[in-house]
Structures are given as C-alpha cells and as structure tokens.
Amino acid sequence: MNPSAAEVLGPDGPLAHSLDNFKARTAQQRMAEAVERTLEASGRLVVEAGTGVGKTFGYLVPVLMDGRRVILSTGTRNLQDQLFHKDLPFVRDALVAAGLGRVPRVSLLKGRSNYLCLHRMALTRAEGRLDDRRQVDQLLRVERWSSRTMRGDISELPDIPEDSPLWPQVTSTTDNCLGQDCPEYDGCFVARARRDAQEADVVVINHHLLMADLSLKEEGFGEILPSADAFMLDEAHQLPDVASVFFGRTVGSRQLLDLARDAVAEQLREASDMAGLRDAADALARAVTRVRASLGTGIGRGPWGRWDGNAQVNEAMDELVTGMDTLVTWLDTAAERGKGLEQCARRANTLQERLAAFLAPEDETVRWYETYTRAFALHATPLNVAERFGERMGAYPSAWIFTSATLSVGGRFEHFTGRLGLEGADTLLLDSPFDYSRNARLYLPPNMPQPNAPNYTRAVVDAAVPVLEANPGGTFLLFTSHRALREAADLLADRIQRPLLVQGTAPRDELLARFRSAGDAVLLGAHSFWEGVDVRGRALSCVIIDKLPFAAPDDPLLEARLQAIREQGGNPFMDYQLPQAVLSLKQGVGRLIRDVTDRGVLMICDPRVRTKAYGRLFISSLPPVPRLDNLAEVAGFLMSDDEAFHEAAGH
C-alpha cells in the first residue's frame, strides 16, 4: 500500500533521502493531507501557508502522487520557470526513485508573446521596421539564436531587456497571429508548446494565461482546460486583480498603431491597387496620436469621467471612432485578397468591438484610462468578478486549490474568498514554522509625523539612517510610492557609507544580485520588491517600511469599488481598503525571514500602527514578533551574535 502524501514528506520519506538537510514540517504535512483530500473529492480548498511551510512541496507531492491531469498556475513567469525547471523535476525524480508512480509528462506553457514568431521576425527583417542600431544588433542576436533554440522562449535571451522595443516586432499576439495560415506554421514555437501541453500530465502556466482562457480571450490552450482533473493555483493572492483585468475590455494605442502599420504592409503585398485602404490606416494612426495629445502630457491614470465635457478629448475620440469604422469597412472589403488582410480585418473588428464596449460599458463597470509617454490605454473593468469567476470555475468540475503566504486577514479568509466567489470552500491557515519570537524584532520609531505631512519621507530617512548604520547586514527600504522612493534616494545619497541600490536604475534581477553580493547594501524598492523576492542570510537582516500600504486614493478602480460598497450599505474602509492593505503589508514583511537561520528587524515607520484602532489588525495579522522600544535595543539585536541561535541552527 502506497504511503500518504504526508508520510512521503515525513522524516523517513523519499524527500528526506533526496534532499540534504531536509526536515519534516508538520505544517507542510498538514497541507499535503488537505490537498490530497481535495484532489480525491474534486473539491475546493484555500490554503494560507506562511513563509517556511514549504507550500510548493506541500502541493507538488500530492499532485504528482495523484497521477491525474493537473494544471499548475503561478503568479509570474519567473515563478513558472522555477517551478518547471527546479522544484517539479526534483519532487518527480524523488517520487519515481521511491517507486511511487510513473514519470509524468510535464510541459511549460506561456502566453504567445513569450515565444519568438518566425514569421514576424522575417517581416521585421524584410521591412526594416527597426528604429535604431541597438535594435538591429538585437535582431541579429535573435536570428542567430532562432536557428538553435528548441522552445523559442525569449527568456533564453536574458541579455536583451524585457522592455526592448524589438520584442513586439518578433513575437505575436492574438490579434496579429496568422494561425495555420502562417507560412512558418510548421516551425511555430507557440503551436509546438501547445501540442506539448495537450500531451502532458502536468502543465505549468501563469495566472495571466489561465485568466485569458477562462475569460475566453483565446490566448493559450482552450483545448486543454476541459481535460484537467485539478487546478493548482500558487500565489493566489494575485488572482482577484488579474481576473478583473481579463474579465474587462481594453483597447490601447499600441494595438491600434500596430493594426494600422500591418494593414499598410499587407495592402502593399496583397492589394496594391487599394490606395484608399492605406489612407484609412494612416487616418487611424493620426487619430490615435490626436487622442494621446488630448489626454495631456506625462504618465498617469484616472477615471474616464475626468474628461466629461472636454471638447478636445471628445473631438479626438470621435475622430478615433470614425477612423476605426472606416478602416474596418476597407479591411472587410479587402479580406478576400489574402490571408494577411483577412487577419487584419479580424483584428480591426475585435478592436472596434472593444472600443464600442469602452464607450458604452455594461452595468457595474468602471471606465478608466492610462497614459504613458507616447501611448495610452482605455479600460472598461468590472467592479466585481466573483460571479463571473465562479461561473467559469463551475464549468470545470475539477479540484480547485488556491494557496499563498498571504490570503487571510486577522486569521479569516472572507476577503479573499468573497472576491473570487469561493464561499463554501474549505480553508486552512498554516502559520510559519520559523521562530519569529526569537529571531525577529519589530521596531516602531517614535515621534513620526503623520504620513500626509510634507516632510514625512525626510522623517523616514532620518529614522532609518541610525538603523542602517547599526545593521552589519543588508537592508530593504520598501516604499508605497515611487515619488517617495526617489526622494529618499536623494536624501540618502550622501548619508550612508555603503552600497545604495535604487529600483529603476537597473533590472530587478541585477539589483538583487548586487545586493546579495554586497552583503551590507541598502536597496530602495517599491511595489515589485514587496513580493516574490527571496534573499536569505545576513545579506537581508532589516526591512524598513515607510507607510502602511493603503492603495492610492485616486486610483480609478478603487474609487469605483468604494463607491459601490458605499451604495450597498457597506463600509468601504473596513470592507475593502483595510483588508487589502493588511495583505500587502504581509507580503512586504515576508521578505525578512526566509530561512530558519535568518534573523532581523522589521521597522514600520507609519505611526498609525500605534495610534489608530485598526493598527491592531495589522499587528495581529503578522507573525508574533517581540517589539523593541528604542534605537539602542535595535542596534543591540542587530549586532548580537546570539550564540544560542547559531548553535541551534548548526553553525
């Protein structure tokens, strides 16, 4: 009789024999038991697994032992790669070596924009679309790589930045993919990845790809979902926001300009006598440019209602609608001339529908916009996705398991389950097994001004500097806004004598590598450093948080959600803003203690933790950490060797 998943994760299980320094963890075994039961019953389970539980092994062991077809969805492409290339092979090999099941077929599937498109690469080369010499050099590297890559995954070329303007030129989207009509279809990397996924027992995807399919955006693998026996969703705290995006409608200037450009290129190839088509495409491009100019300069976002009555914006939007309608008419007429024009016609009709949905939205939908330096996006986003997500989930009567280190607020799951329509799901709260009471301390600096004070960031820096100087290791300074981050970077530049690393000055992975290498650096980060970052040891022994991470009050989606809660008789602050901020704080705090041997100080500068009644909810949602009262105690803890701790850790 085969052992249970919990027994496999026990002190005498196959993982203990395969992994050096493996220690059985009761919380991990409890998670494995719960996942195992849920798989057998095709049920629904929500698990918060605190840092150190080992949630990845906690679900991989029962999933692989179960042996049925499963889809593993993670929060980001980086986590996908780690799961597929590291964690999953390790657990699979350990189980197979122990005679626990067959070798499952596994597959990694990303959205199509992550794969090289051979056809678009050839078009880019033939049409000379590149703007500068750097892009030409990058294209040469891509072409050389294209002849030797097996998967066509652009992450294999890390020396070309993710935000390079070249990538949209040599990858495809749902809009511009020619499908089976593509001359390069036989060698298509997207098609190959999908075929592999169709034949696999375990498919590793990310939430954006999952939601694209659940929301019927046809991004990836609709033919795979119905055959799945289980959906295992890691980093599930990200799902509600991802679902909101994919259940909504978006139309952006880049999509429109790409359409106009491609329409001209296809017209020259397939319908050179239709000069009016080229004129219509050029007119659409001019209308897009005019809309961007009408929305003002700079980067920002806001509710679309901000432009009600603005004549310049209204005239530009009218021109955009007219340009879109005219191009659709021309392309519908020209579609029979060739496959390229036929595809452009499909894209144009889709974008026309999205634009119409934005201008005449459904009920309980908020319209908002984003502007970039030279681009814009128009969004129509549903206020509540619980019903839609629940319906789509119900279409697949499989096991659904959601896990993350941050799903509960004050020990309760209602905020998360309510946002996704998961009422009635089983829940399990597993605290971190790390000894926070011994290895971590909380410091709330006294005499801090209110967060809305004009000198607040300067006060944060003043409070942080003596802590930075006392810390022999490295420090994260986490900010809730980029403006505060930039101000703090300027203030710190001449005040500390150690490496100062600032988000935005280099790619995130490069900053983290330099931070780990330095051992005593100070890294200033905003949102992207609050989660998904793992630095162990003395290289990160202090985390300083400037403010409680309440969402920006001028966020258009937040404004609309709060108003809807208000109209339904609820309390917007207690029902939404506060629990969201608690979950965000838990993510930031989770950066501090990543291993049993880690020690460190958490410093929260925001005085509201102490002065507001709701501050207790923030504290109660964190691991139990003793509090320090003054700088001398902070310095003493950071500098202490704590011999008993090191002896217990085996040093």
Can you tell me about this structure?
This protein is of the alpha/beta class. It folds into 4 domains: 5-105 and 200-240 and 385-430, Rossmann fold; 112-191, no CATH class; 249-382, de novo design (two linked rop proteins), CATH 1.20.1440; 436-648, 3-Layer(aba) Sandwich (Rossmann fold). It contains 27 helices and 18 strands. The strands form 3 sheets. The protein has a 7-stranded parallel sheet with strand order 3-4-2-5-10-1-11, with helices on both faces. Strand 8 and strand 9 (376-382) form a beta hairpin. The protein is globular.
Comma- or semicolon-separated keywords:
18 strands; 4 domains; 651 residues; seven-stranded parallel sheet; Rossmann fold; single chain; disordered C terminus; de novo design (two linked rop proteins); globular; alpha/beta
